[in-house]
Amino acid sequence: MAMGQIIKGKPVADKIKEELIKEVEELKARGINPKLTIVRVGARGDDLAYERGALKRCDSIGILTEVKELPEDITQEEYISEIKKINEDPATHGILCFRPLPKQLDEEVIKYVIAPEKDIDCFSPVNAAKVMEGDKSGFSPCTPTAVVEILKHYGVDLTGKKVVVLGRSMVVGKPAAMLLLNENATVTICHSKTKDLDLVTREADVLVAAVGRAKMVKENFIKDGAVVIDVGINVDENGNLCGDVDTDVVKDKVSMITPVPGGVGSVTTSILAKHVIKACKMQNNA
Ligand SMILES: NC(=O)C1=CN([C@@H]2O[C@H](COP(=O)(O)OP(=O)(O)OC[C@H]3O[C@@H](n4cnc5c(N)ncnc54)[C@H](OP(=O)(O)O)[C@@H]3O)[C@@H](O)[C@H]2O)C=CC1
Ligand SMILES: Nc1nc(=O)c2c([nH]1)NC[C@@H]1CN(c3ccc(C(=O)N[C@@H](CCC(=O)O)C(=O)O)cc3)C=[N+]21
């Protein structure tokens, strides 16, 4: 069996980064300084990984950043008031609220608070509706967008392909399925209630794993020669980052697979930066 190709995020991210550096220079020449504000509650491992990646990426492009660190036990009223403050702060162009939120915070209420024009990761229903409609005037969620960009970069044609998305969250699975559908794939979405999961995923020409369970996807989940996009960012028993796919056991069966770290996450941060600049330009009629 042929050894699968490890398809890294870096070349995809670097290409996006080069374009963005030029755009930031142009904005700065006009006295406009694009800025991202991150809102983090508590200290989840995957949030911290994103934060590290996002701060590094924005820094290298010239985007200003600020992190609002909020206590794990924050009340809904307090959280909402923090978001409203940032909505009204003219220096911030993009807001990223890490999700999932802790249990006492009701996402179904909070998602209406973030200003749609600053909502660079598609939290607001206004932007979610645009993803459904294929309307590119809003902000698609960064990670699902990164998944599509990686597939395009490595020449994987999605038209007519059987794509299985493992996971149905509003951060990854569900919008990823929608964006892949927009690329003319035939899409199946799986979740915790799916029966015979391995039989379903084994049909996939392209498998997108976004479950948040370390190394859950094994050899029996994979069709020979499939392309696997591993979105998972999990922390294993030794404190190291790992994906949702057990890469060691599937790598000889796949044709291509993204690594963790160095895969989807690194492209996600580039898309995030791209969206901050898009938001900044829109807010400045630039
Ligand atoms: N690389 C990147 O840029 C990013 C990585 N991530 C990572 O991706 C992973 C998923 O994130 P997110 O979508 O936010 O996570 P959520 O926990 O919100 O959603 C997980 C999804 O997986 C499903 N699921 C959980 N367990 C199983 C199982 N045993 N079998 C089948 N389906 C299952 C759930 O089903 P149900 O709906 O039925 O509960 C749910 O739809 C995490 O590791 C996260 O850190 C997230 C964003 C960006
Ligand atoms: N609203 C929301 N949207 C998200 O997209 C979201 C979220 N909440 N909550 C947390 C998860 C996790 N996530 C990561 C993104 C990039 C890296 C990343 O840049 N990873 C680098 C490594 C970074 C490092 O370890 O320093 C890599 O994979 O190479 C990691 C994790 C996005 N998430």
Automatic annotation (TrEMBL):
Amino acids binding NADP(+): 167-169, 233
Entry annotated with the keyword Phosphoprotein: no
Gene: folD
Gene Ontology MF terms: methenyltetrahydrofolate cyclohydrolase activity; methylenetetrahydrofolate dehydrogenase (NADP+) activity
Domain spans labelled Tetrahydrofolate dehydrogenase/cyclohydrolase catalytic: 7-121
Alphabetized SUPFAM superfamilies for the sequence: Aminoacid dehydrogenase-like, N-terminal domain, NAD(P)-binding Rossmann-fold domains
The protein's annotated pathway: One-carbon metabolism; tetrahydrofolate interconversion
PANTHER family noted in UniProt: C-1-TETRAHYDROFOLATE SYNTHASE, CYTOPLASMIC, C-1-TETRAHYDROFOLATE SYNTHASE, CYTOPLASMIC-RELATED
A Gene Ontology BP annotation from the UniProt entry: purine nucleotide biosynthetic process
Annotated family: Belongs to the tetrahydrofolate dehydrogenase/cyclohydrolase family.
Signal peptide: none
Catalytic activity: (6R)-5,10-methenyltetrahydrofolate + H2O = (6R)-10-formyltetrahydrofolate + H(+); (6R)-5,10-methylene-5,6,7,8-tetrahydrofolate + NADP(+) = (6R)-5,10-methenyltetrahydrofolate + NADPH
Pfam families from the UniProt entry: THF_DHG_CYH, THF_DHG_CYH_C
InterPro entries reported for this sequence: Aminoacid_DH-like_N_sf (IPR046346), NAD(P)-bd_dom_sf (IPR036291), THF_DH/CycHdrlase (IPR000672), THF_DH/CycHdrlase_cat_dom (IPR020630), THF_DH/CycHdrlase_NAD-bd_dom (IPR020631)
Sorted UniProt keywords: Amino-acid biosynthesis, Histidine biosynthesis, Hydrolase, Methionine biosynthesis, Multifunctional enzyme, NADP, One-carbon metabolism, Oxidoreductase, Purine biosynthesis
Function: Catalyzes the oxidation of 5,10-methylenetetrahydrofolate to 5,10-methenyltetrahydrofolate and then the hydrolysis of 5,10-methenyltetrahydrofolate to 10-formyltetrahydrofolate.
Boundaries of every Tetrahydrofolate dehydrogenase/cyclohydrolase NAD(P)-binding domain copy: 141-283
Keyword Amino-acid biosynthesis tagged: yes
Subunit architecture: Homodimer.
Any one annotated GO CC term: cytosol
Protein's name in the database: Bifunctional protein FolD
